Amino acid sequence: MSRTDRYRDALAVAEFRAIFAAHVVSVTGMVIANFALTVLIYARTGSPLLSALVFTVTFAPYLVAGTLLNALTDRLPIRRLLVWCNLASAALTAVMALPGTPVLMLLALAFGRGLIAPVIAGARAATLPDVVSGPAYVPARSLLRLVSQSSQLGGTALAGVLLTGVSATGVLIGNAVCFVVSALLLRFGTQERRPDDIAERPSLIRDSLSGTGAMFRVRPLRRVLLLSWAVPALGVAAEALAVPYTGSVHAGSLGAGLFLSAVPAGAVLGEVLTNTLADAGRQVRLVGWAAATVFAPMLVFVLHPPLAVALPLLVVSGLGFAHHLGLDRLLMDVAPEELRGRALNLQSTGLMFWQGLGFAAAGAAAQFLAPAQVIAIAGCCGLVCVACLIGPGPARRPEHRTDAPVTAASE
User: Fold this and answer.
1) Would the pTM count as exceeding 0.85?
2) Alpha-carbon distance 389 to 224, whole Å?
3) Helices 340-365 and 323-334 sit at what angle, rounded to 10 degrees?
4) Where in the chain is the domain with CATH 1.20.1250.20?
5) Contacts of 346 (CB under 8 A, 6+ apart)
6) Contacts of 398 (CB under 8 A, 6+ apart)
7) What is the per-residue pLDDT across 126-170, written as a single tens digit (0 to 9) for each?
8) What is the pLDDT of residues 215-243, one digit of tens each?
9) Does 196 or 372 have the greater pLDDT score?
10) Which residues of 10-30 are buried (b: 16+ CB within 10 A; e: fewer)?
11) How many C-beta atoms lie closer than 10 Å to residue 5's C-beta?
12) What gap in Å lies between CA 172 and CA 14, rounded to an integer?
C-alpha cells in the first residue's frame, strides 16, 4: 500500500466528501435526537422501560429492513433512494416534535425511522465502491465508521449540553433539519447511478430473501459476514453493563461515563493507527489477531478489576475493532460481483442489529450473573467464535485471483 493510501485519498473525491458530510450531519443529529427523545419520554411517563425502548425500536428494525429490503439497492437509483429516505426521516422526526404527540405514537414513529435507517446505511455501503474505487475504498469505509464511533463519544455529551438550553422538542426539530441538509448534500453532491434492467426480477421481498440465501451459500463470504457480526455482538458486553459494573466498584456516574467512552475511544484510535501504519496485506493478516484483541482483555474482568484497571483494558479491547479494515478488503475480495452491493448492505445492517441484540443479551445475562462474570463469559465466547470463523486463514473464492482489484490496488 503506498504512503498516499490514507484518508486524504478518499476525501480528495468530491462525491465522497458529499456522502461523508451528509453522514456526519445525519448521524450526529440522530444520536442527539435519540437522547432527547429518551429524555422526553421519561419526563412524560417516569418509566425507565418506555424510555429505554427508544434504543430498542432504533436497532430492532435493522433485521427486518436488512433482510427484506436489501434488493432495493439493485432496483432504485441510489441517489434517489438516499435522498427520499432522508426526507422521509425528516418528516417522521418533525411529527415527533409536534406538541402533545402520544408516547406510543413517538415510539411508533421512532420504529418507522428505524426501518429507514438500515436502507440508508445499505444504500450508502452499496454505492461506495462506485464512488471511491481502488486504494481509497477502505479508508473511505473507515472514515464513515469513525463518524459513527465518534458520535458515541461526543453526541450524548453534546445532547446533554443542548438540553440545558433547548427543549427536547426543539432538539427533534433540529434533527429533522439535519435530515433535510443531508438530503440536499446527497442530491447536489453525488451522481445518479441507475441499476441494471429489473424487468424480469421477482417481487422485492422474494428477491431480497433469495439474494440473502445466495450470499450465505458462498462459504468465504458467509465467514466474513458472520465474523463482522459476531465481534460487535459479543464485544459490546462491557458497554451494555457499564452502569451496573461501575456501581459494583463504587465508581459513580462519572465512572460510568468513562467506562462507556473507553471502548469507542480505543476503536477510533485503533482504526486510525491501523489505516495509517499497516498496508493492505497486513490489515488482512491482522483480522484474526485484532478480533481476538477485542475479547482477550475481557477475560480479566473475571477478577472484577477496579475502574483504574478496567478502563485501560477496555481501551485495548476497543483497539481490536480495527479488524474491520481487513474485513472490508476481504468482503470485496470474496463477494461475487452480482452480490457485492447486497453483501455490503447486509454487512452494514446486520452489524447494527446484532450489536443491538448483544446489548439486550448482556443485560439479560446480568439478571442472573454478576456483570464482571458476564463480560468475561462474553470474552470467552468471542474468542471461540474468532477461532472458528478465521480457521487456518482468510478464505477466498476459488475462482477469485489473489490480486483482486481492491487488494492489489492497495498493496
Assistant:
1) no
2) 8
3) 140
4) 1-210, 218-404
5) 66, 67, 70, 122, 212, 215, 225
6) none
7) 788 888 877 788 788 888 888 877 776 666 566 666 767 778 888
8) 778 788 888 889 988 998 899 888 878 77
9) 372
10) bbebebbebbbbbbbbbbbbb
11) 22
12) 30
The predicted structure's pLDDT at residue 402 = 35
Terminal CA-CA length for the chain: 4
Q: Which three cell numbers stand for residue 43?
A: 419526563
Sign of CA dihedral 146, 152, 156, 157: negative
| CATH architecture assigned to 218-404 | Up-down Bundle (1.20)
Fill in the DSSP letter of residue 8: H
- Listed in sequence order, the residues at least 6 apart from 158 whose beta carbon sits closer than 8 Å to its beta carbon are 28, 32
Copy the grid coordinates of residue 14: 468530491
DSSP assignment of 195-215, as one string? PPP-TT---HHHHHHHHHHHH
> Where does 278-322 have alpha helices with state H?
280-285, 287-299, 307-319
Q: How far is CA 387 from CA 277, 384, 397, in A?
A: 25, 5, 20
- Select from 233, 10, 263 the least CA-distant residue to 149: 263
How many C-alpha atoms does 315 have within 13 Å on its Cβ side?
9
Sign of CA dihedral 390, 320, 142, 134: negative
Residues, the chain:
411
Spell 179-206 as b/e; 16+ CB within 10 A means b. bbbbbbbbbebbeeeebeeeeeeeebee
Could you tell me the CA-to-CA distances from 320 to 17, 287, 290, 317, 343 in Å, in that order? 27, 9, 4, 6, 23
Closest by CA to 97, choosing from 88, 106, 89, is: 106
CB 137 within 8 A of CB 19: no
Among candidate residues 255, 334, 246, 242, the one with its CA nearest the CA of residue 287: 334
As a CATH number, domain 1-210 is: 1.20.1250.20
Distance CA(408)–CA(410), nearest Å, equals 5
Q: Would you state the cell numbers that stand for residue 343, as one nine-digit string?
A: 453483501
By the 10 Å C-beta count (0-12 exposed, 13-18 middle, 19+ buried), 371 is classed as buried
Hey, how many other C-beta atoms are within 10 angstroms of the C-beta on 126? 25
- Extract the C-alpha cell encoding 385: 467464535
390 and 227 in contact (C-beta within 8 Å)?
yes
